[in-house]
Automatic annotation (TrEMBL):
<feature type="domain" description="CCHC-type">
    <location>
        <begin position="156"/>
        <end position="173"/>
    </location>
</feature>
<dbReference type="GO" id="GO:0003676">
    <property type="term" value="F:nucleic acid binding"/>
</dbReference>
<dbReference type="GO" id="GO:0004523">
    <property type="term" value="F:RNA-DNA hybrid ribonuclease activity"/>
</dbReference>
<dbReference type="InterPro" id="IPR055475">
    <property type="entry name" value="DUF7047"/>
</dbReference>
<dbReference type="InterPro" id="IPR001878">
    <property type="entry name" value="Znf_CCHC"/>
</dbReference>
<dbReference type="InterPro" id="IPR036397">
    <property type="entry name" value="RNaseH_sf"/>
</dbReference>
<dbReference type="InterPro" id="IPR002156">
    <property type="entry name" value="RNaseH_domain"/>
</dbReference>
<dbReference type="InterPro" id="IPR012337">
    <property type="entry name" value="RNaseH-like_sf"/>
</dbReference>
<keyword id="KW-0863">Zinc-finger</keyword>
<protein>
    <recommendedName>
        <fullName>CCHC-type domain-containing protein</fullName>
    </recommendedName>
</protein>
<dbReference type="Pfam" id="PF13456">
    <property type="entry name" value="RVT_3"/>
</dbReference>
<dbReference type="GO" id="GO:0008270">
    <property type="term" value="F:zinc ion binding"/>
</dbReference>
<keyword id="KW-0479">Metal-binding</keyword>
<keyword id="KW-0862">Zinc</keyword>
<dbReference type="InterPro" id="IPR036875">
    <property type="entry name" value="Znf_CCHC_sf"/>
</dbReference>
<dbReference type="Pfam" id="PF23088">
    <property type="entry name" value="DUF7047"/>
</dbReference>
Amino acid sequence: MLRRVSSGRQLPVDHRASLAAVKSALFAAFALDSFAAYDAFVTRRLQPGESADVYLADLRRLAELFGGVPDRTLSCAFVNGLPDAARQVIRAGSRAEALDLPSVVARARAVLSDDRVATVAAATAAPPRGGGGSRGGTQDAEAVMAARVPRRPRSRRCWACGRLGHLAAGCPQGNGTGSGAAVPDPPDRVTRRSVFAWCGRLVAHLPVCGWLRPAAAWVKRRANAVTRGWDDVTTDALLQSQISHVHSRLLAADPARGQWCWTGDQAIVWTDASSIAAGVVIETPCGGVMEDACWLRPGDAAATHINMAELDAAVRGLNLAVAWGVTNIDLRTDSATVHRWVDDALSGRARLRTRAAGEMLIRRRVDLIRQLANELELKVTVTLVRSEENLADALTRVPKEWLRDECEESRMSVMADDGAGDSAARGQTSHPLVQGWAEEKTCAEAVQGLES
């Protein structure tokens, strides 16, 4: 474009580096001349949907093209181009208060904003009963179309029912579990992927699940044990019976519930552990359960002493409470030994005394609890409760039938392996009766631990 100006107007070479010279040349080539600019200035009106500031800026631009005008003249031209109602209001105010140009523009903004709100309200109101049309219907329609109505934020859509205005966690029709919703049917084609997806719909994204949480974890562990790939189909009878048991119990009472909306600095942390799992329940001072969680103990941790598992549950419970922003914690456990260890560590009354094989591991866990309380400035009290009163007890148990069935299967597997082994292998290992007795004793202890 600069080349066109240079070639058409013969802009000198020394002027091409001057911004003022280039600007004047561009205006001379493309802008309106003074006569056309004046004609556009005197006929300029506020356009539908145009703001007062844009309108004033265009008047200034046109005025500069024919030499400029004083602010008083620009103010008169500005008021003259406004709609009739706004023009009358601003004229009356100028006579009474002798408004300058900035005040006139501010008054125009307010008047135009009120007019748009009134126009939109009148257009959205019900028509009069007489059936007669209003005067200036076309102008009113244009004003309504030009009015800028603030957009309301999009409503959130519930993925459970597909409706707007709420999330799946608070869906009045339920979200697949809890709140009276229909329990999802078990998978027809049992694979690891389908079992994990079904269990995820039962417990995922819900803070409170109760007995359902360890049961779903146990079912997934069984699915892992009987399949080698994610899409391998299995006909395992134990897995099928466990899925059927969970589904039938859910039809009777679904414990999944809750919303992630609690705030506060006080909470009660219930912790418990068994030979199967560790469980934690976070409860409000008012008695409502905020969240529960459980962790199945791995197979190689079966030999770990129960007091060690109880300490691990206490550490997990404190971490869960800290994640909620709680600073005043009442830690409740049904283990007298763990209660004494943690209480002595927090109060400093006595040193930890134990002759267990994992003494150093126990000391490390107790020190971790003390460090959490000191560094995060937590007020932690420890309370000893009875097992039947512990809310976390249900999170450490699964149906006894599942344990008996799996123990029986394990015992039969050991006997079959012993019968098929060669004499050299039997000579290097213990006696088959001793192995079978050890497996049966371990299963019996696990079942007895659940019944106690």
